[in-house]
Amino acid sequence: MGDALHRLQTQGRTPLTESQSRTTIDVRVGSATDGLTPFSTAKRSLAAGLSEWLALAAVAIAAVAADQLTKHIVSSKLALDDQVKVLGPLSIHHVQNSGIAFGLFSSATAVVIVLTGLAVGWMLVFFARSGARHPVLPVALGLVIGGSVSNLVDRVRLGHVTDFLDLKRWPAFNLADSFIVVGVAILLAALVAADRPRANPRT
């Protein structure tokens, strides 16, 4: 009687297969358990690395050296307010400027020194955080920082900067001013190009 009852209980049970005894979990690499939702994304750091800092320093030092050399040559070869005609409207005209680029704010030297120092500090912070955002940033900011630092050194040391590039219908300027303008133009063009949406390729 006991053996018969045991056989009936055994026959009434559904045998468990290996697939039923354990739950199958489909886990895909790079996704959540549903295979669709990413659980992690890798983000590229935009902070400036060693190569960006070296490039920035090289450009800035070259800009300072070129500007200081040309100012020294003009100051030693031409008396103040003397000029030498070069080509067309361009002439080398030795003048002094206590303001910022192109003779602006010439009566506010102390304010210009403070603002220039703050601007250079801000650019260094920006570069530290975003120097790897675009490959031209070290060149663009290097030109701006080099030109700004070179004129800043002259204002602190001499109370003025030497300008010598004269186009007649435009205030005289120097290489540092040119470096700043070119650097800003490159920087703006790079930022605009980086923010422009990319066209999706046709499939």
Strands across the major sheet, in which order? 1-2-3
Shape: elongated
Count of spatially separate domains = 1
The chain-level mean pLDDT equals 79
- The rounded Rg comes to 34 Å
What's the total count of β strands?
3
So how many helices? Answer: 6
Structure description:
The protein has 203 residues and is mainly alpha-helical. It has one domain. The protein contains six helices and three strands; from the N terminus they run H-H-H-E-E-H-H-E-H. A three-stranded antiparallel sheet has the order 1-2-3. The longest helix has 28 residues, at 50-77. It starts with a helix and ends in an 8-residue tail after the last helix.
Can you lay out the helices and strands and say which pair or pack?
Elements: H1 2-12, H2 18-21, H3 50-77, E1 83-87, E2 90-97, H4 109-130, H5 137-158, E3 161-166, H6 175-195
Antiparallel strand pairs: 1-2, 2-3
Helix pairs in contact: 3-5, 4-5, 5-6
Keywords:
mainly alpha; 203 residues; elongated
Quick recap:
This protein has 203 residues and is mostly helical.
